[in-house]
Amino acid sequence: MADLPADPDTPDDSSLGSDRGMTPSTPRWVKVFGIIAIVVILLFVMLMLAGGGSHGPGRH
């Protein structure tokens, strides 16, 4: 079957640009901040589990 001519009333998808349908990426500073926050939280949890967060007479 032959292709029908394009309807002049419909917008041409090729003129909208190549970013149609793509989601914006997360900024680099947000990723870096998130990684640093995760590392700090993991270090804190490791210190608490290792007994580094205990208080008492034997600690001072």
Notes on the protein architecture:
- With 60 residues, the chain is mostly helical.
- It has a domain at 27-52.
- Helix content is 37%, strand content 0%.
- The protein has one helix and no strands.
- The radius of gyration is 28 Å and the shape is rod-shaped.
- The N and C termini lie far apart (88 Å).
- The mean pLDDT is 76.
Strand percent estimate? under 5%
Overall average residue pLDDT: 76
Major sheet description: none
- What series of H and E elements makes up the topology? H
Overall spatial form: rod-shaped
Short description, anyone?
It contains 1 helix and no strands.
Fold topology:
Blueprint: H1 28-49
Main features:
60 residues, 1 helix, mainly alpha
